[in-house]
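Supplementary Note 3. Input sequence used for the single-chain structure prediction.
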Amino acid sequence: MGNEQMLEKVAQAIVDGDIEAVKSLGQTCLDLGIAPADIVQKGGGAGLEIVGQKFEELELFLPDLIASADAMQALTSLVMPDTGSISQEMAGKVVFGTVAGDLHDIGKNLSINQLQLNGFKVKDLGVDVKVNRFVEEAEELGAQVIAMSALMSTSAYYQKDLIEYLKTKKLRGKYYVIVGGGPVTAEWAAEIGADGYGRTAVSCVKLCKELIASGSTPGSCAPRVAE
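The predicted structure, written as C-alpha cells, is reproduced below.
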C-alpha cells in the first residue's frame, strides 16, 4: 500500500473518531517513513475537513465532532510528541474569550479545539473577559483575530463595546473581530460592525481562515457569515 493510500486511511479513521485505528495507522505511517507533518496535515487534516463538511451538512453531530477531535489529538501526540499538536504558526493567531458577565465556555472550548487542530495558535482568555483584556492579550500575542463568545443576550452587548474600544484606541484596523454564541446573529454582527459571525466551531475555523487570507483591512467590509 502506497503512502497516499495510508494517509487516506488515517483521514477516514479521523472521520470515524476511531482512536485505536488512528494510533495504529499513525505508527504504520511513521514506520513507512512518512513525514510527521504530512501525517498530521494530509492525513489528519484531510479527515477534519471531511468532518467539518459533514457537520455543516448535518450528516455528523456534536458527539462525532468531539470524537474526531480526540482522535486528532491522539494522532498529533503520537507523531509529533514534542509539540503534541499541529504546528500552530502556519494558519494565524487568535485570542478567544467569553465576554464579561458570561460564564459559559462549552462553545468557546470547542471552537478553540477546532482552531488549534487546524493550525492556529490560540490564547484562551477564559470566561468573564473584560473588553480591555481582549485587546491587551491580542497585542501581546500579535494576534490577527479577536474572537468573542456570548451565551446570554445581556452579555452580547460587550461585543459591541469591544469594537468601540478598538476604535477609541485607533486599533480597529489591526484586528479582525468575530462573534458567536446563542443569542448572536449575523444581523447583530452587521449592526455592531464585526468582521464575521459563526454559528459553530467549524464555522469559526472557516471564518478565521477566510478573513486572514482575504488581506482586507479589519472593519472595512460587511461581516462574513459562516453558518
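The two ends are 38 Å apart (CA to CA). Residues 83-89 have pLDDT under 50 and may be disordered.
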